[in-house]
Amino acid sequence: MMDLAPWIVWFRRDLRLSDNPALAAAVRSRAPILATFIAAPKDDDLWFPGDRSQSWLRVSLDALAKSLHERGSRLIIRVGAAHTCLAKLAAETGASTVVWNSLCEPNQRTEEARVVATLGIVGVAGCSYDSDVLRNPGTVLTNSGGSYSVFTPYYRAFLRLPPLADPLPAPRSLRPLARWPDAADGKTIVGPCAQQPILSDWEPGEVGGIKRVRRFKAGPISNYDDARDRPGNDGISRLSPHLHFGEISSRQLWQALQDVPASGSYLRQLVWRDFARHILFHKPSLPERPMRKPFSQFPWQPNASQMQAWKQGQTGYPLVDAGMRELLATGFMHNRVRMVVASFLVKHLLQPWQAGARWFWEQLYDADLANNTLGWQWVTGCGPDAAPYFRIFNPVLQGEKFDADGAYVHTWVPELGQVPARWLHQPWNAPMKPKDYPGPIVDHAAARTRALAAYATIRD
DNA sequence: TGAAATGTTGGGGCG
DNA sequence: ACGCCCCAACATTTC
């Protein structure tokens, strides 16, 4: 028993100790455990995480290292390609086995395949587990065995399946290695640009995630269905970055909210998260290419200055600008507003959805390839189960409907402080035009007509 | 997880 | 009392 060869637990975006199947398997083996995180070099990965995401990661790794330390263990951070680093670590420590939890993104799956191949060559066992989704792609299938491409039938099939297993508890202690290998630390892996501090209302890491769940469960969830659409109220969970990095698992969240009254519409959102992963799993080209063929012929009108106005929150539409400024300032944006700003970029400004997806990717703490891709394709109308292209948000009406008291716009667009409530979402019609605030970058009615005409060119 | 245009209805003002 | 018009309110269709 004493001379069992170590197991390596390869942490990726499952930065938690509880409900972590790979870690639990290693604990069950009774072998000494080497926990490692491997930071990939940037190389030419099209979807290398942005600075915001990397900043979060750095803090989250510190948190993970701390919890491992509290259990008598360590986090060994290495920089390089996963397959080489893991093979090297195994050689240094005499490890017999590497375990990890799978991810759905194309580049992650490629990486996993390389790891499997390399470990095979060096004679180390490799074993992967599932914990990123509630139900794996391939387990939610139509009666004829196909995969769903529309959400509602997917959701119904999802609910018909047997209940989910209970989450796994966190191990109390972890058997240490006799001698620890060298390691980099969290700061060195993410590069200087990701050193910006995380705003104080966020706490990356498992503990922070659990606190967030508790707060959500104690308050907003009871009114979620209604409150989630009003960006001026704090009626949302703000769990997305924690979920992205796996600081809590979606299964833990699902189980924690199972018996909470009125949690249904939130749980449905969790299934959307699964659905996005399921779609990406079956169609790995989706981050770059529209799912609906005709959209590759869409007459986009790329324009750097319009992109710039959108990114900086200078479009002259208060709700759009508030959202874009919230993103720039905080690395987060309320989901209702994400839909509005995305629709505005794609439809009012005719900028390609990929450009918007890229900006979100760079700026969001919760940037997640599956969710981001599905969201943008959905808004554009080119994705699976897509909103029809002609469904064009009117940013004025959306503002008046969901930010009626102007709380959100006032927070992010201070120039509009003196505009009477009646005109807040259409300040160009106000008796006194606000100073220092741009006029509308496009006329809504004209832009709508133009968007519909552009759409007509690709219709059959 | 729209909005605008168009159609229909019904109550009230008014000649 | 009656018909006519107006238009708000709601429903339907269209993009």
Summarize the structure.
45% of the residues lie in helices and 6% in strands.
CATH homology superfamily of the largest domain: DNA Cyclobutane Dipyrimidine Photolyase, subunit A, domain 3
- CATH topology of the largest domain, which one? DNA Cyclobutane Dipyrimidine Photolyase, subunit A, domain 3
Counting copies of identical and different chains, the oligomeric state is single chain
The coarse overall form would be globular
H/E series: EHEHEHEHEHHHHHHHHHHHHHHH
The amount of beta strand, in percent, is 5-15%
Mean pLDDT figure: 93
The residue fraction in helices comes out at 40-55%
**Strand line-up of the largest beta sheet:** 3-2-1-4-5
Number of helices: 19
Number of domains: 3
* Structure classification: mainly alpha
Given as residue ranges, the uncertain stretches (5+ residues, pLDDT < 50) are none
> Given this structure, which CATH class of the largest domain is correct?
Mainly Alpha
- Major β-sheet annotation: 5 strands, parallel
The whole-angstrom Rg is: 23 Å
- CATH architectural arrangement of the largest domain: Orthogonal Bundle
Number of strands: 5
Between the first and last Cα atoms, what is the distance in angstroms? 69 Å
